[in-house]
Amino acid sequence: MTRYILQRLLGMLAVMFTVVTIVFIIVRIAPGDPAAVMLGPDATPADIAALRARLGLDQPLVVQYLFFLGQLIKGDLGQSIFLDMPVTRALAERAEPTFFLTLFSILIASAIALPVGILSAYKRGTLFDQAVTTFAMFAASIPSFWLGLLLIQIFAVRLGWFPVAGYGGPDASFLTRMSHLVLPAVALGIVSSALITRFTRASMLDVLNDDYVRTARSKGMGEFRVVMRHAFKNALIPVLTVIGLTAALLVSGAVVTETVFSLPGVGNLVVSAVLRRDYPVIQGALLVIAAIYVLINFGIDMLYILIDPRVRY
Hints:
globular; mainly alpha; 14 helices
């Protein structure tokens, strides 16, 4: 088990180093001069050159990269050019909406997908199974922003049950802020449930006809216990994998949904940073999202140890 954990940790470090390098290169070769954008159209070449020197953008890429790595090791993601604050602070201030939006979305997706996928596999070939397959295909093809706009029109504008957009004022209570996340979380949860449903159904179909399931039934064990204790437990590893990947994708893919619902999350911060060529914010956000992605996958790998004892040896 120790070897397994060490392998996963080394893999995490290798992935993060690769991501750091790729993010640095992509941001630097992107078109547009951040100094020129920051100073505006009336800036003189001398002003632009002076600002580039102050930001270190006039240095060779290798020098910039080494400096960037040194700052990253210290936990310093740099200073935002336009917000005039540390990137870590800017990300921390925007983290709450994105965190809870991702959490609620994956909970909604799992609450829909797991029971529906299990029941669909158990009732393979029936009308219910066909309806679930149709729903999964339909949900997977719906753009989350379109579904979000539809939910706004029905539940916010017509019925008035939920806020249209925003995240509440500075003095808003926690419940008020959470109420702003209901519609975007439902939109993302429904779309995300399609993939989890299909994986759950496929995994259950693989194990329902295995010998140990037939043996459990032949011993007179109740059908619910057979399905949940024997079949679902052994089908859980691929399902956990896709849930983890979906959660990681929601962190990075909530940009459009946050824009539709005017949520002040990390996604909106990234969009504004790209438009302004705010290199430090872009780099910091991408690295944090990549780190979350890697940590979620590492957490899923650790859950494998609890679910399948064979992983320990």
